[in-house]
């Protein structure tokens, strides 16, 4: 595609002025510049250092692998996808700084990033101010409805709706809630309490620990005192490893008091050792052990790219497939109007045969149809899938909060 140098310089100056003024539509004018050098820039914003690097590194790797696959197949409409990688170091404030660099400085048409809800909330003002697009692959609390985010991870109706009743049926109604101290664990525990109330259950304890927390002796003592039927865990990062090791060292038995998690994956189990996770449960749309041709191909490619013995998990999988959904959305647009808002609208309704099964971006709310599963951790570090949905489940981000509905225009309140 040809481009006149004078027009390019004039357009660049205009964009710089618009950015300085905080003008939100910086991508609408001169949108064809994204293809000017036969390249499409995208941001990759996952922590490679800090407490959540234990899991976010795998999201970075899955994203880069998907980009490599796309480029090896000829790119998108003949253009190469160029990843601009930043390390926000597990710090929400750094996430916001790096996000602004990717959007304003690097002029990426989309950014793939975040694991914690705290980091997603930190970058959201950047994407809303500049009308850019963030692709978020992580399970989350579901109480968000932004025009500037595509959500490809599970929301509570895709993770807890069947999980909590299954736990009550199989282990009992007394739950102890333990989570890391930020928005996601608190909101997920809110949903858990709503479900428990409906099921006649009770919460015998609720506690939150700082990110990176590693000393759980007082928490373990409370487990022993309250004797819950289920320990419901939304602890994240390195803390998951410490919690499991100290649980086992204290002589607690998963057959009598299992930990049921929304956040413990194969990645944390690889770090702690399979013997510390065996007998505990996780609910997620994807497990590495899932038997499908697409998953076998995904795991094989991941290990070939990043090393034999590397694990895939329930957040690296959507980090991977969302890049392919991005590709399909951009292909649909062709070489015209390649702006973040246009990409978002082109993404609605896109389907992709992911490792977990066929997924689709819901045009109603920019979240994703997924396949809920329940897995029991084994000593070999993998999960045995013991329950799975027979069909994909529509995302309902405000499912636990009647009267609130996410729409393409934003959050709507239903009239009573």
Account of the protein in words:
The chain is built from 13 helices and 17 strands. By secondary structure, it is an alpha/beta fold. The protein has a 7-stranded mixed β-sheet, sandwiched between helices. A 5-stranded parallel β-sheet has the order 2-1-3-4-5, sandwiched between helices. It has a 3-stranded antiparallel β-sheet with strand order 11-12-13, covered by helices on one side. A hairpin with a 2-residue loop joins strand 16 (404-407) and strand 17. It is globular. The N and C termini lie far apart (54 Å).
In short:
This protein is an alpha/beta fold and 416 residues long.
The percent range for helix content is 25-40%
Strand order in the sheet with the most strands: 7-6-8-9-10-14-15
Oligomer: single chain
Give the low-confidence spans: 1-33
Order of helices and strands: HEHEHEHEEHEHEHEHEHHEHHHEEEEEEE
> Which whole number gives the mean pLDDT?
91
Q: Tell me which CATH architecture of the largest domain applies here.
A: 3-Layer(aba) Sandwich
What is the count of distinct domains?
2
Share of residues in strands: 15-25%
How many beta strands in the DSSP annotation?
17
- CATH C-level of the largest domain: Alpha Beta
CATH superfamily of the largest domain: Response regulator
Largest sheet: 7 strands, mixed
Rg, Å, rounded = 22 Å
Structural class: alpha/beta
How far the N terminus sits from the C terminus, by CA atoms, comes to 54 Å
CATH topology of the largest domain: Rossmann fold
- Shape call: globular
- Helix count, DSSP H or I runs of 4 or more residues: 13
């Amino acid at each position: 595609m040809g481009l006149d140098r004078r027009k390019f310089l004039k357009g660049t100056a205009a964009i710089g002025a618009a950015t300085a003024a905080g003008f939100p539509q910086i991508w609408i004018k001169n949108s064809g510049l994204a293809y000017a050098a036969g390249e499409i820039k995208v941001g990759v914003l996952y922590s490679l250092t800090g407490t959540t690097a234990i899991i976010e590194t795998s999201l970075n790797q899955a994203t880069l692998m998907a980009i490599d696959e796309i480029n090896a197949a000829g790119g998108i409409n003949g253009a190469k996808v160029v990843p601009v990688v930043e390390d926000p170091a597990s710090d929400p404030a750094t996430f916001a700084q790096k996000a602004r660099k990717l959007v304003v400085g690097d002029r990426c048409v989309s950014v793939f990033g975040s694991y914690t809800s705290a980091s997603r909330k930190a970058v959201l003002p950047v994407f809303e101010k500049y009308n850019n697009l963030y692709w978020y692959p992580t399970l989350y609390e579901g109480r968000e409805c932004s025009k500037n985010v595509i959500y490809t991870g599970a929301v509570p109706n895709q993770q807890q709706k069947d999980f909590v009743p299954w736990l009550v049926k199989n282990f009992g109604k007394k739950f102890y809630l333990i989570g890391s101290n930020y928005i996601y664990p608190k909101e997920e525990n809110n949903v858990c309490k709503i479900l428990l109330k409906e099921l006649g259950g009770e919460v015998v304890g609720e506690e939150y620990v700082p990110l990176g927390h590693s000393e759980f002796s007082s928490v373990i003592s409370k487990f022993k005192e309250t004797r819950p039927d289920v320990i419901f865990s939304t602890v994240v990062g390195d803390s998951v490893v410490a919690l499991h090791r100290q649980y086992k060292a204290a002589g607690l038995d998963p057959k009598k008091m299992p930990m049921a998690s929304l956040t413990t994956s194969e990645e944390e189990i690889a770090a702690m050792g399979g013997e510390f996770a065996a007998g505990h449960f996780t609910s997620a749309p994807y497990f590495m052990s899932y038997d499908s041709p697409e998953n076998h191909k995904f795991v094989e490619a991941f290990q070939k790219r990043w090393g034999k013995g590397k694990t895939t998990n329930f957040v690296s999988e959507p980090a991977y497939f969302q890049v392919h959904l991005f590709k399909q959305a951009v292909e649909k647009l062709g070489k015209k109007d390649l702006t973040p808002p246009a990409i978002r609208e082109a993404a609605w309704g896109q389907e992709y045969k992911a490792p977990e099964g066929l997924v689709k971006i819901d045009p109603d709310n920019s979240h994703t149809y997924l396949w809920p599963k329940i897995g029991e951790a084994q000593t070999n570090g993998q999960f045995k899938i013991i329950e799975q949905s027979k069909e994909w489940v529509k995302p309902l981000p405000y499912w636990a909060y009647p009267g609130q509905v996410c729409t393409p225009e934003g959050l709507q309140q239903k009239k009573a």
